[in-house]
Amino acid sequence: MLGKREYNVSPVTFSTSTIQETHAKATSPDAASKASSSATASGQAADSVQLSPAALREMALTGRVAANGDMGNLTSDQTQQLYGQISSIQSQIAGDTQADGGTLSSTDALAIQQSQNQLSGTIYSEAHNGAAPPSDPTVTQAGAREAVEAGRIVLNQQEGHLSGGQATQLSAQLSTIQRQIATDEQANGGTLSSTDTQAINQLENQLGQQIYNAARVGTTPSQPAVNAV
After folding, report:
1. d(CA 4, CA 11)
2. pTM (2 decimals)?
3. How many whole angstroms from its chain centre is CA 221?
């Protein structure tokens, strides 16, 4: 089970330099196995290789659907229908990328972003009993990363790179980090302090590395050093 809140409303727009792996193709759901070896060799943190903006949003949308399904905000049928819409957009990205010679044209990128924005609103509405999504949602970087990491877990499990047990353990760790964020925000008047932000970022980096390791070599994820509340 992943926490007790809807991760974020709008597509993720924070810097891709904070996310671990890169997609060779936009349709590839094997998020973890496509990490760049050059980044590791250059001394970058394990959670600091780039994703394309479209692939990053797809991963975040997947994570939001998974989280809301786990929390009971979406029925099983709604969850599967939304996954189907994400898959359709992934197929569109792949087709447009191929037609554009390997990268999305500005026109195609804009069309894909509009489709993702519409799907983002649909996820919110279905998870909130038909309510319209906020016109100006607040999305923290920590919350956005939670959605991306949740999406990575789901996509790697769907591809068979994570077992059900591994996915459950990793999801539990993500939920623990989420609770830590909520506690720190409450203690700091509703926002994370710079110290707390750094600590949460380190925990998310650790989780990102654990997802990568588990998906690549089948290791059992260890528990992060987080105080559950």
Report:
1. 20
2. 0.70
3. 18
Q: What is the dihedral of CA 20, 114, 5, 194, to 10 degrees?
A: 50
Q: Give the Cα separation of 69 and 85 in Å (integer).
A: 15
Sign of CA dihedral 133, 172, 142, 54: negative
Residue 66 tokens read as: 């998974």
Phi/psi zone of residue 72: left (φ > 0), alpha (ψ -120 to 50 degrees), beta? left
Q: Give the chain's radius of gyration (CA, Å).
A: 17
- Name the residue range of residue 69's domain: 1-229
Single out the residue of 39, 37, 124, 33 nearest to residue 74, CA to CA.
Answer: 124
Tally the domains of the chain: 1
Q: What is the DSSP string of the chain?
A: ---SS---SSPP-S-GGGS----SSTT----GGG--HHHHHTT--TT-----HHHHHHHHHHHHHHHHHHTTSS-HHHHHHHHHHHHHHHHHHHHHHHHTTSS--HHHHHHHHHHHHHHHHHHHHHHTTTPPPPSS----HHHHHHHHHHHHHHHHHHTTSS-HHHHHHHHHHHHHHHHHHHHHHHHTTTS--HHHHHHHHHHHHHHHHHHHHHHHH-PPPPPPS----
Q: What is the pLDDT of residues 99-144, one digit of tens each?
A: 989 889 999 999 999 999 999 999 999 999 999 988 776 677 788 8
Q: Note whether 167 and 220 are within 8 A (CB).
A: no
In sequence order, the 6+-apart residues with CB closer than 8 A to the CB of 187 are none
